Amino acid sequence: MRAAPETCDVCVIGLGPAGSSAAIAAARAGVRVIAIDRRREAGLPVQCAEFVPMMLGVDSGPVSSALIQPIAAMETFVESAHDRHSADFRGRMIDRARFDRALVGQAEAAGVEVRLGCEVRALGADGVVRLADGSAILPRVLIGGDGPRSRVGAAIGCLNSVLVETRQVSVPLIRPQESTDIFLSTRLAGGYAWLFPKGDVANVGLGIDRRWRNRLKPELDNLLDLLAQRGTIGREVFGHTGGAIPVGGLVGLVGRLGEVRVLLAGDAAGLANPVTGAGIPAACHSGTMAGEAAALIVRGDPAAVADYHDEIEALFGASLRRAVDRREELLAHFEAATAAPDDLRRGWIAYPAYWTATALQNGDVRHELLEA
Fold it and tell me: Could you check whether the bond before residue 302 is cis, i.e. omega within 30 degrees of 0?
């Protein structure tokens, strides 16, 4: 016979930026929170390019504690080094593992019962979270902060199906720089390549629509060889990483398993930007909002479910829909083998053509660039 599940107010699955932010907010609101993650050490392995827009960096202690260097601009190259566009796109490069550990530390300080190395085996239709060690948890509210292939999202029928596959390496950076470099090419279907500086190291990687993922290795090898020939990077490789990024926009935010209310946040909800793939700001904001909503639900406010949904939609909905539209327009050109440089520019946030159909004012554009 199975032992009775352990009960709690809120159970958070996943301790990345979304899950940790949710756990912190719920615990600070005075409810009992259990937060679990299958990883044995918070933040590892790193599956991130480690750039954070300035909007988040201004008000996040963990960003400051994980800071490696400031970023002053974005340089975008289309097909060649001669086609270059500069944009005022400021932010910070961080040590993502240190950032995640700082968030988990804040969660523990807030009173969250953090359980690492704890793998979910099944999520029952009754809302019971069954773990690989045979134990179980029955929360009043379940928050999914478990990434693009979310078990929680799948359980409520809200699973990301549009994904970009990424691959990245860390290499020596020969000359320090304060800009991120973006490389757009008709060879990179549904994605782009990047160089993000971290002091004397660079993260160099690319993302491609998963239908063309067989191009990941050769295209990354070509980029590394080109940058090494230019004297930008060294050839030694310090480490590899990669993973999936959801790029289909919102897949859903709320649901129910039996009497258990379910909220999704971050990549689990499809909140990564479909064009840039950036997701840390959206993960932290949505996680905090999910944690606050969960505490209200526990205290008997059922309207908090709809309020969470509506607030996330108001904050991110328009920019996500615009990015989905631009991405689908560009993919149609790739599928027809007609992608050209002008199509690449229209599909990237740094170019005016990206915004032409939106009638946004300059201030709105800057706000969305910072959220992208």
Answer: no
d(CA 237, CA 205): 12
Rounded distance between C-alpha atoms, residue 129 and residue 107, angstroms: 20
Residue 55's pLDDT is what? 62
The arithmetic mean of pLDDT across residues 361-370, rounded, is 40
Gyration radius of the chain's alpha carbons: 21
* Rounded CA separation 198/205 (Å): 14
Sign of dihedral through CA atoms 315, 318, 321, 325? negative
Which two structure tokens, joined as six digits, stand for 161? 């199906």
CA distance 139 to 284: 22
Per-residue pLDDT at 365: 40
Distance of alpha carbon 166 from alpha carbon 212, whole angstroms: 11
CB-CB contact of 285 with 53 (8 Å): no
Residue given tokens 């992208």 in the structure block: 372
Q: What are phi and psi of 107, to 5 degrees?
A: -65, -45
CA atoms within 13 A on the CB side of 162: 19
The answer, yes or no, to whether residue 100 has pLDDT greater than 60, is: yes
- Strands 33-37 vs 6-13: parallel, antiparallel or unpaired: parallel
Q: What is the pTM of this model?
A: 0.91
What letter would DSSP give residue 5? P
Tokens describing residue 218: 């050769």
Interval 149-169: pLDDT, tens: 999 999 999 999 999 999 999
- Joined together, the tokens standing for residue 288 give 């905090």
Contacts of 76 (CB under 8 A, 6+ apart): 84, 85, 86, 87, 181, 182, 183, 184, 348, 350, 351
Encoding tokens for residue 233?
Answer: 């990077």
Q: Which of 192, 46, 22 is nearest to 107 (CA)?
A: 22
The share of the chain scoring above pLDDT 90, in percent, equals: 79
pLDDT digits over 250-292, tens only? 999 999 999 999 999 999 999 999 999 989 999 999 999 999 9
